[in-house]
């Protein structure tokens, strides 16, 4: 035997908000489209992408440090309103799902 494991390798990315590495599937890909940051939950939009945890804490850190402009190599400031709305909706839906699982 070669000593290699046969488990599939899971690609990792770095969150631009908290700068921690995580599995690609746990992060949300962000793409710049017409001067705005757009969530790419399927990972199929063309262009350069940046990854962030789908949590308001990480999103706020990234916005405060103006990371998206650098990471996406955008010529100017990017609008993050649509991204914030998406993360807020995702967070509310996740909390509702957890509450349904906990309640008997």
From TrEMBL:
Gene3D superfamilies: YlxR-like (3.30.1230.10). Residues 13-75 form the YlxR domain. CDD domains: YlxR. InterPro entries: YlxR, YlxR-like_sf, YlxR_dom. Signal peptide: none annotated. It comes from the Bacteria. Pfam families: YlxR. This is YlxR family protein.
């Amino acid at each position: 035997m070669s000593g290699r494991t046969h488990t599939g390798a899971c690609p990792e990315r770095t969150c631009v908000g908290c700068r921690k590495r995580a599995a690609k599937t746990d992060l949300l890909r962000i793409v710049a489209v017409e001067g705005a940051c757009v969530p790419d939950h399927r990972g199929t939009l063309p262009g350069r992408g940046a990854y962030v945890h789908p949590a308001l804490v990480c999103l706020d850190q990234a916005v405060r440090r103006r990371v998206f402009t650098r990471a996406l190599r955008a010529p100017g400031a990017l609008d993050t309103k649509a991204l914030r709305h998406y993360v807020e909706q995702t967070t509310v839906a996740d909390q509702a799902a957890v509450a349904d699982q906990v309640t008997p």
